[in-house]
Every structure is written in C-alpha cells, then in structure tokens.
Write a structure and sequence with these properties.
This protein is an alpha/beta fold. It has a single domain (about 1-225), classed as Rossmann fold. It is built from 6 helices and 10 strands. The protein has a 5-stranded mixed β-barrel, surrounded by 5 helices. Strand 3 (about 30-40) and strand 4 (about 40-45) form a beta hairpin. Helix 1 runs parallel beside helix 6 and helix 2 (about 50-65) runs parallel beside helix 5 (about 175-185). The chain is globular. The structure holds adenine (ADE). The site of adenine has 14 residues, from strand 5, strand 9, strand 10 and helix 6.
Length: about 230
C-alpha cells in the first residue's frame, strides 16, 4: 500500500523522518516529498506549510502525483474541550471549516452549496486507532476538529467555534485534507496532540509544547502504520 503521512510544520514531520532510513527526496511544487519503505509499504511524507491552501495542495499532490492510497495526518491542535490537556491525543471523527462563511445567503457556518459542514473520517482507520490506543494503554479522544486559516488565541473565538461546530479541538489544516480525500475517495485519518488551549496563553504554550506534542502524535502514527 502507498501510505502518505502529512503534517503542516517541519516540527510535526521531523520525528517521523528521524525514524525512517533510506529516504529519497523528491521536489515538487515548491515542496519536498520524502519517500521511503516500511514493512511491505511505500511511504511518502511531507509537511505542507501552515494553513488550508498549502494543506490542500499537498494532500492533492500526495494522492494524484505520489499515488497515496491512504492519508494520515500527524500534528498539534488547540484544545476546545475542557477534557483535553496539553499532550493529549485527539482523532477527528469529523472535520469542519470554521472560517467558511456565506451566512449572508442564509447558509449555516462552514457550508457552501454542494459541500458539507462536517466531513466524516474513515471508520476503519478510527477503529484501528482505538485498537492501537488500547494496546498501548493510551487515552485517545475521538471528536470534531474545526479548521481555519487563523491561529486562535482567544477564549471568545474558541468558544464560538466549539458551540457552532460542536468542535473539541481546532487547527489550521485538517478539514482541507478531509475535503481533498473525500472528493478523491481516499481514506484519511487526522490525529492531533494538544499543544495549547487556544486562549490568551496559546502563543506561549504553542511555542513551548509544539515539539513535544508533535512527537506524541508522530509516535502514535508509527504504531498505526505497523498495523496497516
Ligand atoms: N494549532 C495548534 N494550536 C492552534 C491554535 N491555537 N489555533 C490554530 N491552530 C492551532
């Protein structure tokens, strides 16, 4: 199987690059794609750069140019749910774009005609992730992740996103990957470890915990691919 592993930032993908040997680097569309092999699988890794547009470009490239048959996202997120603390893992059961707004035309937030407010992740990958979490004795929360081109550092904004989308965590790429994978019929899985609480301390916490939380997520992804 050709497995794509995607992150947004170098810090999110570095722990995975450190893990694999014999990496071939392919440059395409102003980005680097890292090809390797693991067990019987071909793996292609990339970090997209931050935000929905770059994530869309990279996810599409991973599928259309590199032939990815499954896309696994690894990275960090801001917590909305009070249950989620720094370092905790959340997997998306569904993803919404919190900054998509044509409410002026009577549509709900996150909706455009012929689209969906929430795109569901692949059920088999979710099931597998819970099996892996059980085996490792790790708590893995499943919830809604909201995505937007905005680093959220305000309790007011975060609470609005939580209430409007029923979201448990927020970040800046997941829903784009969901849109691409849903359209191209490729199963996807979005995993995030919490780096901050999207409140007034978010900028400081993010800087402090980006690397450690990114590692938590990357280690879990490695356990997942052992089972694919
Ligand atoms: N990713 C991690 N923390 C975030 C935040 N507070 N806002 C947006 N994306 C994030």
């Amino acid at each position: 199987m050709i497995i794509a592993i995607l992150g947004a930032m170098q810090e999110e993908i570095e722990p995975l690059l450190d893990y694999f040997d014999d990496i071939e680097v392919v440059e395409f569309a102003k980005n680097k794609y890292y090809k390797t092999k693991y067990n019987s699988h071909d793996i292609v890794l990339a970090y997209s750069k931050i935000g929905k547009v770059f994530a869309t470009l990279t996810a599409t490239t991973l599928i259309e140019k590199f032939g990815a048959e499954v896309v696994l996202f690894s990275g960090v997120a801001g917590a909305i749910s009070e249950d989620l603390k720094i370092g905790d893992l959340i997997v998306a059961k569904g993803l919404s774009q919190h900054d998509l707004d044509i409410t002026a035309f009577g549509h709900p937030y996150g909706y455009v005609p012929e689209g969906e407010v929430c795109i569901n992740a692949d059920k088999d990958l979710l099931e597998l992730s819970h099996k892996v979490a059980d085996e490792l004795g790790i708590e893995l929360k499943e919830g809604i992740i909201a995505t937007g081109d905005q680093f959220v550092a305000s309790s007011e904004r975060k609470n609005w996103i939580g209430e409007t989308f029923g979201a448990d965590a927020l970040e800046m790429e997941g829903a784009s990957v969901a849109v691409v994978c849903d359209a191209l019929d490729v199963p996807f899985f979005i995993l995030r470890a919490i780096s901050d609480s999207a409140d007034m301390d978010a900028g400081f916490d993010f800087d402090e915990f980006l690397k450690s939380s990114a590692k938590v997520s990357a280690n879990f992804i490695l356990k997942m691919i052992e089972k694919l």
